[in-house]
Write a structure and sequence with these properties.
By secondary structure, the chain is mostly helical. Helices cover about 40% and strands about 0% of the residues.
Length: about 90
């Protein structure tokens, strides 16, 4: 087995172990209350300033599309191992 395959398998194993252990470390929480809101309190959510964050994420993905790379049509040329330089 190549060392790169070994490193990849160890990394995948650690990732899987972390995903299995993570839910066990979280504490349990429950909603407590009657469900009725107290009188005189009005809850509002007006802190978004009318900005649609989805468009910003879409622009970020479009910006990352250029990093995908090009498909190579010709094979990589290598030098002959027996050639010498003068």
């Amino acid at each position: 087995m190549k060392s790169s395959n070994f490193v990849k398998s160890i990394g995948a194993g650690l990732l899987a172990l972390g995903l299995l252990v993570a839910p066990l470390t979280l504490s349990a929480s429950a909603q407590v209350g009657t469900g009725a809101e107290p009188e005189g309190i009005i809850y509002r959510n007006e802190d978004d300033d009318d900005f649609d964050w989805g468009w910003l994420g879409l622009l970020g993905l479009i910006g990352l599309a250029g990093l995908a790379g090009k498909k190579r049509q010709e094979p990589t040329a290598y030098r002959e191992p027996t050639s010498t330089r003068y």
